[in-house]
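Please fill in the sequence for the structure shown.

STRUCTURE ENCODING:
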């Protein structure tokens, strides 16, 4: 008798990751892909006479949900080695192809259209589901003829080739730009734990001394702490030259321009419009115009504030015997102004204490009970929770917060499964993976989180709550991805707001050595300094959002990548770019699904800050406010656009004044 494949459990129980083998992964991915194809054939054959909600929508829901769940459940296993990574990659690409073919399947589209016309038999959720399905078909190009489909297929092949080339150039230039240090004196000012990290990196590479990798973690450490100005310059230059290639065709600036032109052709082919306008039809914002207006307004407000901050930094540089401020001095000087260094602040936030704070927040504000459970995961550091709402189990949550072998830097959240009801009336729970890149504790110390690491974790936990709070409707309507990246980033940015409240930050703090909490005055001072740095981050985000949106609105206007980026940065008052500095060349959001969508972080933050003012007024743990929040933003699933929920919660549309006030931009 063949042993049961632990990946094929129909979500009836948590996956036993300890027992999963490579063959299980390959077999499971083949099985669910085959089941999807069989299910599609049965629907097309059985629904021709009279398509029904159960026989069409929920039947397709089942096979789509199972295929998605199995692919995403294997994602963390891709870190176990090349063979595992290859197996996942093959399964993922196959699933992507099947999902795209689904949205271009004309006979299936015709069935959905027929069902949608029978409005009298549909409730509000079913109507919203069918509207979304038909929108996705239109945006995918289901209406194109055979010749147009051939053109579209070639465009997408060319786009994928450029995306692959972008990553290849980025990886190659990053790998060859690491810096070896043999004299530890050059690392003066860098905390010992970060020196130890660089020593381990050198040892892993077979080198003596210390190795500074060309990645965000290493660059941030040197630029913030290293007293050696020449070292800061070398690291900054290497980090901001990633993606630059001597061969123009392999240079990522060329690739981004080619990608934008190819996407423009795709937008014109499918919707007779720009790619940006096409993409935004599927997001909460709806169109380019309100997004561009928001970004332009913010840019106008940011510029004078940024120029003022730059002047102040020049004065601080003089106090530290530095001549004109260079880009590699900015983070270092900002750190010198802090009442409490990031290194000192992180000592107050152990991972255990922070996870307890998240569990407490979920229960007190959102009525979700997270109970730790002993189930196997893909790494021993992963924490697992069963999630209950009003006493009913609604899903599983995995917190994969710390780095471990094979795991890539970065933070993200994976909706393995959404809450839904199937055609037999069975309720399926959600399964959510919240992933971040915190540093594990070393030398007997617990894992500690600085404010940036806290924000990453709370942000991703917000995405997790978004998935868990969606009611059990159907697979599509309970999928936050279908609400658009702007709605998703609202949830992430909303959870971050608690960390900018001094009283909350003090309350969840506890020094790992003494157990002492931050005083309110200490928390206020620390946050005041951090908010100054956030102004520069806001200017960066707005400038990159403008760059992204304008690149994908008019890529053929004759502007080069660097020219367009410099203009957008100048509008926001960002520091002028050095001759070698080409941040767009490593801006992988534009090849990772956020093209014409990077604005989502700014748009989400504007809404989040406005909504959070009500929690500051009523109380950070006010359960009534939490219930109103769920009623406005979750209980309707995707049947109600997020801006409508915002207006329902606030009693008015979102206003930018709250964001301007928080950044001091009135």
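FILLED IN BY: designer on duty
SEQUENCE:
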């Amino acid at each position: 008798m063949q042993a049961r494949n632990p990946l094929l459990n129909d979500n009836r129980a948590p996956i036993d990751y300890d027992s999963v083998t490579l063959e299980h992964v390959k077999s499971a991915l083949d099985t669910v892909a085959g089941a999807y194809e069989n299910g599609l054939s049965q629907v097309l054959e059985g629904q021709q006479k009279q398509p029904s909600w159960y026989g069409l929508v929920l039947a397709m829901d089942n096979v789509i949900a199972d295929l998605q769940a199995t692919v995403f459940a294997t994602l963390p296993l891709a870190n176990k080695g090349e063979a595992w990574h290859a197996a996942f990659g093959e399964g993922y690409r196959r699933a992507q192809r099947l999902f795209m073919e689904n949205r271009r399947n004309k006979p299936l589209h015709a069935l959905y259209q027929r069902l949608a016309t029978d409005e009298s038999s549909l409730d509000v959720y079913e109507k919203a589901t069918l509207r979304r399905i038909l929108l996705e078909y239109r945006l995918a190009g289901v209406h194109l003829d055979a010749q147009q489909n051939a053109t579209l297929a070639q465009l997408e092949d060319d786009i994928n080739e450029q995306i692959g080339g972008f990553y290849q150039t980025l990886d190659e230039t990053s790998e060859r730009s690491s810096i070896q240090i043999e004299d530890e004196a050059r690392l003066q000012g860098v905390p010992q734990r970060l020196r130890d990290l660089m020593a381990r990196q050198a040892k892993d590479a077979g080198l003596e001394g210390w190795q500074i990798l060309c990645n965000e973690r290493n660059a941030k450490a040197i630029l913030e702490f290293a007293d050696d100005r020449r070292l800061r310059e070398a690291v900054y230059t290497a980090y901001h030259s990633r993606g630059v290639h001597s061969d123009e065709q392999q240079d990522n600036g060329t690739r981004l321009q080619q990608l934008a032109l190819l996407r423009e052709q795709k937008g014109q082919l499918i919707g007779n419009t720009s790619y940006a306008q096409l993409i935004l039809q599927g997001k909460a914002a709806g169109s380019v115009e309100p997004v561009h207006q928001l970004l332009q307004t913010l840019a106008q407000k940011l510029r004078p504030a940024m120029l003022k901050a730059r002047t102040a930094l020049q004065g601080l540089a003089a106090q530290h015997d530095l001549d004109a401020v260079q880009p590699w001095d900015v983070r270092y000087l900002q750190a010198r102004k802090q009442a409490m260094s990031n290194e000192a602040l992180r000592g107050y936030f152990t991972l255990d204490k922070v996870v307890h704070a998240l569990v407490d927040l979920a229960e007190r504000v959102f009525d979700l009970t997270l109970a730790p459970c002993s189930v196997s995961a893909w790494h021993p550091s992963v924490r697992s929770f069963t999630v209950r709402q009003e006493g009913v189990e609604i899903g599983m949550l995995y917190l994969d917060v710390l780095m471990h072998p094979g795991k890539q830097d970065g933070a993200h959240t994976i909706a393995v499964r959404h809450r839904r009801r199937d055609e037999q009336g069975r309720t399926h729970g959600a399964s959510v993976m919240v992933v971040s890149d915190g540093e594990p504790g070393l030398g007997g110390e617990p894992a500690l989180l600085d404010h940036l690491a806290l924000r990453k974790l709370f942000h991703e936990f917000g995405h997790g709550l978004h998935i868990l709070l969606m009611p059990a409707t159907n697979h599509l309507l309970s999928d936050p991805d279908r609400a658009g990246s702007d709605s998703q980033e609202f949830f992430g940015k909303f959870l971050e707001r608690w960390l900018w409240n001094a009283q909350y930050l003090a309350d969840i703090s506890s020094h790992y050595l003494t157990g002492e909490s931050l005083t309110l005055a200490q928390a206020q001072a620390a946050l005041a300094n951090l908010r100054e740095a956030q102004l520069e981050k806001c200017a960066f985000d707005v400038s990159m959002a403008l760059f992204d949106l304008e690149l994908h609105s008019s890529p053929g206007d004759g502007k080069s990548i660097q020219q367009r980026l410099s203009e957008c940065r100048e509008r926001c008052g960002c520091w002028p770019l050095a001759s070698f500095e080409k941040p767009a060349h490593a801006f992988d959001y534009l090849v990772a699904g956020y093209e014409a969508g990077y604005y989502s972080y700014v748009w989400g933050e504007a809404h989040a800050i406005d909504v959070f003012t009500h929690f500051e007024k009523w109380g950070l743990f006010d359960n009534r406010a939490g219930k109103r929040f769920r009623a406005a933003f979750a209980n309707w699933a995707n049947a109600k656009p997020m801006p409508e929920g915002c207006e329902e919660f606030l009693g008015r549309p979102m206003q930018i004044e709250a964001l301007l006030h928080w950044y001091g931009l009135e």
